[in-house]
User: Fold these one by one.
Assistant:
Number 1:
Amino acid sequence: MISMIWAMDEDHLIGKDDKIPWHIKEDLLYYKSKTAGQDVLMGDVTYFSLKGYYKNRPLPYKTIYLATLDKNLKIEDENVVIIYDIDEFLKNVDFDLFVVGGRTIYRLAYKYADRLFISLIKGHHEGNVYFPITDFSDFGLISENETELVKYQIFERVK
Ligand SMILES: NC(=O)c1ccc[n+]([C@@H]2O[C@H](COP(=O)([O-])OP(=O)(O)OC[C@H]3O[C@@H](n4cnc5c(N)ncnc54)[C@H](OP(=O)(O)O)[C@@H]3O)[C@@H](O)[C@H]2O)c1
């Protein structure tokens, strides 16, 4: 099963340069509850941004499949597997995988996703990176929970 998980606000904003535009602890905890210890796919911009947050602490995933087109990129971490061809990789995934961003990787992975975990952050924020897809009609809502700050939705592919 391939799942995508992201947080976006009412304008579909997901980033401010290479960072998340808000700091909402309950959403971070939700994100962690879904992805900690899981196999994840991310782009190199997101990877280096997360490394900035975690500094010397290890990132909380099982294996990180790191997408890049840079053949010179070397990461000295046995939990990181570099992926040059996302289509080839996603076509052959036979285990549970979370796609965790960023914008480019969401766009490339969307057609392979079975489930979407969306945190709809209430309000409008400052930033410059938007979620690349606006039409979610291939998916049906299977769960929704709302707090004062966030609406947590899970969608499953219907076509
Ligand atoms: N709100 C959220 O939930 C959330 C989650 C994650 C990220 N984000 C935001 O998303 C933004 C980052 O998105 P981004 O698009 O700049 O970066 P990204 O998706 O993290 O990484 C993009 C990189 O992927 C590589 N790539 C591109 N096409 C590829 C392909 N066909 N196969 C393999 N690798 C490929 C390229 O690496 P090379 O340039 O090295 O070739 C490209 O620079 C930030 O603002 C971040 O905060 C938000």
Number 2:
Amino acid sequence: MRVALFVTCLADTLFPQAGRACVALLERLGHRVEFPPGQTCCGQMHVNTGYQRQALPLIRRYAETFASYDAIVVPSGSCTGSVRHQHAMVARRFGDERLARRAEEVAAKTYELSEFLTDVLGLEDVGAYYPHRVTYHPTCHSLRLLRVGDRPLRLLRHVTGIDLVELPDAETCCGFGGTFAIKNADVSTAMLADKMRNVLATGAEACAAGDSSCLMHTRAATAPRGVGHLRGSEPFPVAARRALADSQLRRNLAKVTTTIRAKRARVVGELPDWEELREAGRAIKARTMAGLDGYLEQLEAEFTARGGTVHWARDAIEANQIVTGLVQATGATEVVKVKSIVTDEIGLNDALADGGISAVETDLAELIVQLGKDRPSHFLVPAIHRNRAEIREIFLREMDGVDPGLTDEPRALAEAARLHLRRKFLAAQVGISGANFAVAETGTLCVVESEGNGRMCLTLPPTLITVMGIEKVVPSWADLGVFLQLLPRSSTGERMNPYTSMWTGVTPGDGPQRVHLVLLDNGRTAALADETGRQALGCIRCSACLNVCPVYERVGGHAYGSVYPGPIGAIVSPMLTGIEDNATLPFASSLCGACYDACPVKIDIPSILVHLRARHVEEAARASRVPSPEAVTMAAAAWAMSDPARFAAAQRGGRLARLLGRRGTIRRLPPPLAGWTRARDVPVPPAQTFRQWWAREHRDPS
Ligand code: SF4
């Protein structure tokens, strides 16, 4: 039997591994597979988008390319469906009966892969081994156009080691639909969100499907580009080098982080059950992430039942639109804001400004950052990079009505800010906040802060809008109690937080009477889909990992380019944006592990950093045919080191480096090792390696 592979244009271009796996499988089953190079595309995209005349040459090409084969195997239910049901129909529509008949003949020999295996070869067990939990998404075209029925499932059930779990609501469309995903992007992604929720609910490590296009679509969306502050304008090493040259910044950072570290150590040391508390925090977060969809729905129901309004925002663009629209509906042109990292993540202040609304930051440090036209550089101390003299200068330059005799005494600076903000609080019609926690069982939101300014924002304006990442929900008040112990000791080094504000919907006649909650995804579902990386969503933004990180202490927050700096930023930012948009961040760590020790919810940051590095290397290898010098070096080293004889030979070769040395050191190495010798020497390899010494010393005397 002459078997041809029609790889499809999409798999050929984006998923060549699907074609390679198909060939490997068929060859292992004893078939010689041919790949006719004249093949291109089945024309389905044109037909389904209404361009049937333009599809004609593609249909003709398919018929001509595959006419001489006994069987054509296609790793796509959708393209097989197009060949079978559309080719002849389109040819007839344009009066080409000859092409229609030819198309019918070729279509009769065209098989989707599972059809070929089960119907033509009569196989269900193809000898596959895959010891993982897998769920199966039956794509609409394979299900309804092609009627493959349970053939793919029969094949999957025979895979050795597989734990096949049923996908809830499996037969509902994922929302791809070809150009539907572009022309009706909002509806498409709403359908996708439901599909993703069901896939995640299975706990499967992999979701299998018969169409690469649907699988491509079901990759959860990452945070969009061009909005918000999750991506820097330059790689970490470049930004870090500049930061390192700022000696004032390094002095400020060292002073503040040393002080907070000591305070934290003191109060943590008071608790004999600190480790048990940390474990409880970790366990609650893990349980919450496992049932996140259910807790969010419960939160929505409870919040709504108590008079609040919940809005769901897929990403930063949508969240900004929602908040801007809500403010505009009140007629306000100025809002007061509680310190909130998530609103900085989405670039809310810029979006409000575009809508004619000015946002006033009311946390003292955030106010300094805003007036200084600057960016925050620490969760807890956003103006950590500024000293008192600089703050005085900013106030004198930017603050209306400030006393020209203002000194840089902390009390004087705080009083100037107080007078400035008090006027803003009393006039504000809208307050905007983030939330540290949201209790699902009662729909209660919680903000913790140290100054009391946040409480004024939360209670004085008649309208309150809260933007919250979906990961901030906690199931119950008992769970909240754990975090209210962990957070202040880990962040400010205090036993309890000075101001803990909670509100549950609307209380008639008391506080804001219009209360909104915007639940933000912005790449969090994509992070949730990463089984190793999802731990990062447990972060309670205490900043303990920043304060103990030797890298952060030397470069500060701006070098990370994202609102999430330090060790947690190095894992959260790439997961929200997609690794390649923040590819240098997972490498911004010496893997010392201090962050893991300090984290109150035991996020294993070093392991996630290593995991993300692997994802980056794999994605970069897929994206480029030309390996980087580092990849070539690593591959060569692995080849040499995987065999003792090759390793010994490489060591002998390495001794040539002795020629580069002077007085026992080598001053300059070529790329990719040049970074090492930019700051230090390398010792010249000794004349004899250990293994050579051992071989000589332990020669068998016989
Ligand atoms: S990762 Fe842990 S230590 Fe770092 S900010 Fe988040 S909760 Fe705190």
